[in-house]
TrEMBL record, chain A:
Keywords: Oxidoreductase. This is 2-oxoglutarate ferredoxin oxidoreductase subunit alpha. It comes from Alkalitalea saponilacus. One of its GO terms (molecular function) is oxidoreductase activity. The keyword Oxidoreductase applies. Residues 15-221 form the Pyruvate flavodoxin/ferredoxin oxidoreductase pyrimidine binding domain. InterPro entries: 2-oxoacid_oxidoreductase, PFOR_II, Pyrv_Fd/Flavodoxin_OxRdtase_N, THDP-binding, Transketo_C/PFOR_II. The keyword Oxidoreductase applies.
UniProtKB/TrEMBL annotation, chain B:
GO terms for biological process: cellular respiration; small molecule metabolic process. Residues 75-220 form the Thiamine pyrophosphate enzyme TPP-binding domain. Keywords: Oxidoreductase. This is 2-oxoglutarate ferredoxin oxidoreductase subunit beta. The keyword Acyltransferase does not apply. Signal peptide: none annotated. One of its GO terms (molecular function) is oxidoreductase activity, acting on the aldehyde or oxo group of donors, iron-sulfur protein as acceptor. The keyword Oxidoreductase applies. InterPro entries: 2-oxoacid:Fd_oxidoreductase, THDP-binding, TPP_enzyme_TPP-bd. It comes from the Bacteria. Transmembrane segments: none annotated.
């Protein structure tokens, strides 16, 4: 049965993982996301659904435990925050190279370095560009509410398994820490080992005489064979752009100016659109839900309608690059953002739009 | 008239056969390398215990990265040093499977030190095989954490200077102190008796998993003729004279 609860975003992730039937969680404590593992350890899902929860010795270990579990065809996830996600990049590259599905939650905090524990969106470029070595991408989902923190666990796993590719839920300290009403879905049953062996013929389930051995690997020493592999992976990314782009539009129908923002910044920008409209300025908001695949086609369409776009993000300007690539010079694209854990107010966004497009 | 090979290999004349679980792939190891013998022994033990369908192996980065080409079981190829974490993920989610990791000295005792110690400390119910030849073979003979004092390598061309490079690291003795390990032994594979002892140790380690005893850890003191720049016979002699005093053979722990 589904259930209404008042929860933190981090707690919602943990609850949703158990209810979706995740098989394993491996993590390492870091603010502002430690509630994910704390909630899991408190709920003891190994006694109810059989889900494994393990605190690893580092983020490097947790992402490699994921590699082990994911290779067995299990649904595995981890969560961390920016510095910890940096440590996972090697493992993520291997997971992508071995074509393994898994879900990684990044509750972003301000960087660079140890930085701050306050919210930021400064890991955008790392998330959407793969992040580790080699030509690969993660599927990146950006929740902007506690409800979406819960819902995107399922969505992320569905997409990860559809494409056999790691998926990231790119959240931030604000969404992770804030409390909202959330509807939790009913409990699903975890897949049995027999179902896994049948549904995922690539998984290492122990080699029976009926099939060749399964090898989870990312190494290929023949450059021509490895180029063919790379082409295959790139084809998946193309397919994602065709089939799985998700976004939300807010008052775009008659918009003359467009705000582009995701996650917590999109929440703030909704209020900014309202304030701008009260001033007689026809503003709209496009919120990418999938940051990879990016809704570039939609932005290109809107470029034919609006006079300017403002990318609003809690960073020095990372999302803005994707917006500029999408509209390819058709309209001016400007950037506004605060950094270091500072969150912009709706009024600051209004001011930035006016300054960039309406004054002087 | 000389006897032809086809006459010699008649079934009735065979006293030894290729290990059943070894594939047809030609080994990529250098002549005299210890890896081939240990690979074969692992295949034999899995076959004799009849656990092929229930065994998942984890290969490292290093000379044995391609070990998955040689034994007919399911495999994961791990990132450098991370095999114990990968093995942990497999074993925790498939506890009924037999899981083993196979790593060299650079993989297990340098870049993967944290994963090694913590997997052993948690007592992950799996086998960790540690091939120690005191050198990085695949990358061309650089200094390893286990390189002996005075031993030459491409990154210590005048011999390991402990004041500059630190001391050889004895990982096997370290993990023996951890309560999570149930069986810690140091073996070799350079003579027939050594091979028999090593096989016995491998069998015991797989059986420990069935009994859920914790982590079994088997170091194999090994040679690297190419890296050491000696022929295989010289390598074995050098290993006996120089490696064994620092890495003495025998069981360190058997609970």
């Amino acid at each position: 049965m589904s259930e209404l609860r008042l929860m933190k975003g981090n707690e919602a992730i943990a609850e949703a993982a158990i209810r979706y039937g995740v098989d394993g969680y491996f993590g390492y404590p870091i603010t502002p996301q430690s509630e994910v593992m704390e909630t899991l350890m408190d709920l003891r899902p190994w006694e109810s659904t059989g889900m494994v929860v393990l605190q690893a010795e580092s983020e490097i270990a947790s992402i490699n435990m994921m590699y082990g579990g994911a290779g067995c065809g299990k649904k595995v996830m981890t969560s961390s925050s920016s510095p910890g996600i940096s440590l996972m990049q090697e493992g993520l590259s291997y997971l992508a190279g071995a074509e393994l599905p898994c879900v990684v939650v990044n509750v972003v905090r301000g960087g660079p370095g140890l930085g701050t524990i306050q919210p930021a969106q400064s890991d955008y470029a790392q998330a959407v560009n793969g992040g580790g070595h080699g030509d690969y991408n993660l599927i990146v989902l950006a929740p902007s509410s506690v409800q979406e923190m819960a819902d995107f666990v399922e969505l992320a796993f569905e997409l990860a398994f559809k494409y056999r590719n790691p998926a990231m839920i790119l959240s931030d300290g604000m969404i992770g820490q804030m409390m909202e009403k959330v509807e939790l879905k009913p409990q699903k049953t975890r897949m049995s080992n027999e179902e896994i062996a049948e549904k995922y013929p690539w998984a290492t389930t122990g080699k029976p005489s009926s099939r060749e051995r399964n090898i989870i690997t990312s190494v290929e020493l023949d450059p021509y064979a490895f180029e063919r592999f790379n082409n295959k992976v790139q084809a998946k990314y193309k397919q994602m752009h065709k089939e799985d782009v998700r976004f939300e539009q807010f008052q775009c129908e008659d918009a003359e100016y467009l705000l582009v923002a995701y996650g917590s910044s999109a929440r703030i920008c909704q209020k900014s659109v309202q304030l701008l409209r009260e001033k007689g300025i026809k503003a709209g908001l496009l919120r990418p839900i999938t940051l990879f695949p990016f809704p570039g086609v939609e932005l290109e369409k809107l470029a034919g309608q609006v006079k300017g776009m403002l990318a609003v993000e809690l960073s020095a300007g990372q999302l803005v690059r994707d917006v500029r690539l999408a509209v390819n010079g058709k309209v001016p694209v400007e950037h506004f953002g605060r950094m270091g854990g500072v969150i912009h107010s709706p009024e600051e966004v209004v001011e930035a739009l006016e300054k960039n497009f309406l004054k002087g | 008239m000389a006897l032809e090979v086809k006459d010699i290999i008649k079934p009735e004349n065979l006293v030894y056969a290729k290990t059943k679980l070894l594939t047809e792939r030609m080994l990529h190891y250098c002549p005299g390398c210890t890896h081939g013998v240990v690979n074969k022994l692992i295949a034999e033990v899995i076959d004799e215990l009849n656990i092929q369908e229930d065994t998942i192996g984890v290969t490292p980065v290093g000379c044995s990265v391609l070990l998955y080409n040689y034994i007919e079981i399911d495999w994961h190829e791990a990132a450098h040093g991370r095999a114990p974490a990968v093995g942990t993920g497999i074993k925790r989610l498939r506890p009924e499977k037999y899981v083993f990791t196979y790593q060299g000295d650079g993989d297990l005792a340098a870049i993967g030190t944290a994963e090694t110690i913590h997997a052993c400390n948690r007592g992950e119910n799996m086998l960790m095989v540690f091939i120690n030849n005191g050198i990085y073979g695949m990358t061309g003979g650089q200094m390893a954490p286990t390189t002996l004092e005075g031993m030459k390598a491409s990154t210590c061309p005048f011999g390991r200077d402990v004041e500059h490079d630190g001391n050889p690291l004895n990982m096997t003795s370290i993990v023996a102190t951890l309560p999570g390990t149930c069986y810690v032994t140091r073996q070799a594979a350079h003579t027939a008796p050594a091979v028999r002892k090593l096989k016995k140790a491998l069998r015991k380690a797989f059986e420990n998993q069935k009994d859920k005893k914790g982590t079994s850890f088997i170091e194999v003191v090994a040679t690297c003729s190419s890296g050491w720049k000696m022929n295989p016979v010289q390598s074995n002699k050098w290993m006996e004279a120089n490696m064994f005093p620092i890495y003495p053979l025998g069981d360190i722990k058997d609970v």
